[in-house]
Each structure stands twice: as C-alpha cells, then as structure tokens.
C-alpha cells in the first residue's frame, strides 16, 4: 500500500490520467465527495482504473482475470462473480482478450484518504505522439438486466437514438502539434442523432487533415471487422454500457496506427448461449456510418 499522499490526495508519483474521455472523473463532485477517475504514473504505458463498488467492480475484475487465466497468480481467483463467467467458451475468451487492453493485475492505493483497488491496464493512448481518442458507448440498451425501473427510465431518456442505432459518441480528445487539445464531451455526443452522428464521426476522423479522413476511416473499418466477427460468433457475453475506444496518430508524418479496443465491463453478463444482438447491431451501424463517409 502506498502511503505518502500529496496535496492532491494521490500517492507520490501518481497523477490523474490525462487522456480520459468519459466515465468517473475527479472534476465531478457527488454528495460532497469528488469521484475517483483513472490514474497514471507519468512516463509509463499503464493506466489504473478504480475498481467500482459492489458487483460492478467485481464483474470488471472477473472479466479481466478470466482473460488472463493462463497467468498463475490469477488462476486461483474465485468469487461468485467469476463463477458467473466460468461457463464462457474458452475460444470466446481468447478472442475477447485480443480486442481488449492488456491487464497487469490489481494494485491497492491510498487515494483521497481511503484505501482503494485499481485495475492496472495497458494505456492504449501511450504509444502515440499526438493521440486522437474517441469513446463510443455500444449497444441498444445502456442498462443491464438487473437494473431497477428507475435506472431503466433514467438510461432510456438519456439518449433515445441509442436504441435506434446501438451506439453513442461519448466524446473525444485530439492532440495537436501546437500542444493544444481539442476536447469534446458527452453533451457534444448527445447533440447528434441517428441522422447526424456521421458528422460527429467525420470530425473525429479528420485530425490528420480532411484529405486523410478516408484513409483513417478505412483503417477503422478494417479493425471493426474483427470486432464484428467476434460478436457474430460469441455466445458467452452480453455487454451493457460498455465502450469501444478508438485511438490513432494525429501527427501527419507518422503512421496512423489506428487501434480499437473494448473497455468498461462493469455491466457484463454471461449470455448463456445467446448472441449480444444489441452490441452487434451497434457495430453494424457504425460500419454503415463510416462507409458513408468514404
Ligand atoms: N486501457 C485504457 N487505455 C486508455 N484509456 C482508457 C483505458 N481504459 C479506460 N480509458 C479511458 O477512461 C475512460 C473511462 O473508462 P471506463 O469507461 O472504463 O470507466 P468508467 O465509465 O468510469 O467506469 P464504470 O463504467 O465501470 O463505472 C474512457 O472513456 C477512456 O478515455
Ligand atoms: Mg464507462
């Protein structure tokens, strides 16, 4: 356990993760307490995601541990939640692993006066000179099968087009050579509907200049193929309120290196032999939106 907290409530050497797009963030104060967001140690290619409370945190840890189950340290892990996923097809787990950031285990840290657990993840934005990063929330429903009536109502009115298209822009960060960062948040994302979401996508994919947009989109379409293929075959998982994180190089004289990873598994469920049609629908629509921009 790291003990020497700085004035900002973080252990020495740690800082808030600067490339975070969506999710829990220290700028948000709820019931008088600030939220805990992702952390990083500057100069490393890892980021640390706080394990959320209750089953949400347990589920995410269980999924990442399942994907690392050839790791001895993790093989003995067992809990009620991990047994939820114990019947998942090994080939689905293997495929999922290839679509996610790498997982390096759990770290306990003392943050804001409290001991907390963090998932140590590969920072997928680390190997870029000027990263362009976009978070897309996937699926037709952003509430899970155990959600209360209140939660269902709250989620359903948040962004009605989600049910029609199966995806939503949560925001982006685009780094520029003049050291500025263009940031778009969830309100920007909500300003688009099923007819206009392409404009938001076009904006994100133009970071290398308008002439390069089609090249970047072709790379994205290529990467989306493996994600679609996974959802066409896998019958192990259902994901709710989960995201696709896109990242590519915005500096024009460097390779684009576009990558798409699946993140946020706090509402993952065993799908018991069913495909995740809501997520697949979102991927198919995304492909259509991007193809229309070519
Ligand atoms: N492995 C990663 N590499 C780089 N950035 C990441 C990674 N994982 C998450 N992020 C960033 O952090 C943001 C929030 O992540 P995530 O959606 O997993 O957390 P959350 O919404 O706070 O958690 P939860 O939904 O579990 O309550 C993402 O939008 C993304 O910008
Ligand atoms: Mg999230």
UniProtKB/TrEMBL annotation:
Protein name: Kinase
Family as reported in the entry's similarity comment: Belongs to the inositol phosphokinase (IPK) family.
One Gene Ontology molecular-function label: inositol-1,4,5-trisphosphate 3-kinase activity
Superkingdom of origin organism: Eukaryota
Catalytic activity, as annotated: 1D-myo-inositol 1,4,5-trisphosphate + 2 ATP = 1D-myo-inositol 1,3,4,5,6-pentakisphosphate + 2 ADP + 2 H(+); 1D-myo-inositol 1,3,4,6-tetrakisphosphate + ATP = 1D-myo-inositol 1,3,4,5,6-pentakisphosphate + ADP + H(+)
GO CC terms in record: cytoplasm; nucleus
EC identifiers of the protein: 2.7.-.-
High-level lineage: Eukaryota, Metazoa, Ecdysozoa, Nematoda, Chromadorea
The UniProt record lists the keyword ATP-binding: yes
